[in-house]
Amino acid sequence: MKQLLPLFLLAASPALAAGQFQPPEGCEVFVTVQHTDCQVSYHYTCASDPKGHQWSVYAGSDGPYYMSRIDSETRWIESHDLITPESDALGTEAEPASFSSLLETGRDDFDFTTTSSTGEVRRYVGYDRLAGHNVTIDGVTFDATEFELETFDAEGNFLHRRSGTQMISRDWRLFFSDAEHFENAYGDVEDSQSRPMTFAFPAEKGFLSTVPQFGCDQMMTMNEALAPVPASFTARRAP
Q1: Quick one: pLDDT at residue 85?
Q2: Domain containing 104: what range?
Q3: Sign of the C-alpha dihedral computed for residues 67, 72, 76 and 77 taken in this order
Q4: Domain presence at residue 2
Q5: How far apart are alpha carbons 175 and 178 in whole angstroms?
Q6: How does DSSP classify residue 177?
Q7: Degrees (nearest 5) of the Cα angle 190, 172, 204?
Q8: What is the value of pTM for the model shown?
């Protein structure tokens, strides 16, 4: 039997109407982003949230599948799989992530745990570092960053490691993915790339569009070849 999302999540989840993404009631999207790998993302704030909190929803050709909330320091507050009932929430923080520290010192180290809706605890340890140059995409300028992130289970066993490059928007206080190297405890290794391509703002063409624009033919070819599903989701604060 197909599992259903919890009622609280259904009430807070985005929807699709008339070919457009619809954020939850009381929320306002500030940018729609098309990515290279057949993904489109929506970034929005909600009046009922604490100041500085914001949401991101990622969608593929079959619709939205992932939703997460961060605070003004890009601390990972919560995330939800929109296909299954699974969710994760921030747990303990030995060293909270700090977007401000990254901007002020050029590096931010973090060490925190999350707890899933099934009770699984994971620990994330790593850093973000300014790479020292800018990247401009579709008229939007980002600071390039480098990162490394290791994940452990509740007993301290190594699960996987991610490293690579990302981009940050100082104005939006957001991370966007770029190139990533992934390896896990079983010896699996994967290199991938997913980066933003275009940005649509309110009243612009493509704003709230539900149709991914880039890389979908390639993704279909991969699926037909039974290529493995990407081993990690590279949006920052969504390990």
Answers
A1: 80
A2: 7-224
A3: negative
A4: no
A5: 10
A6: E
A7: 95
A8: 0.86
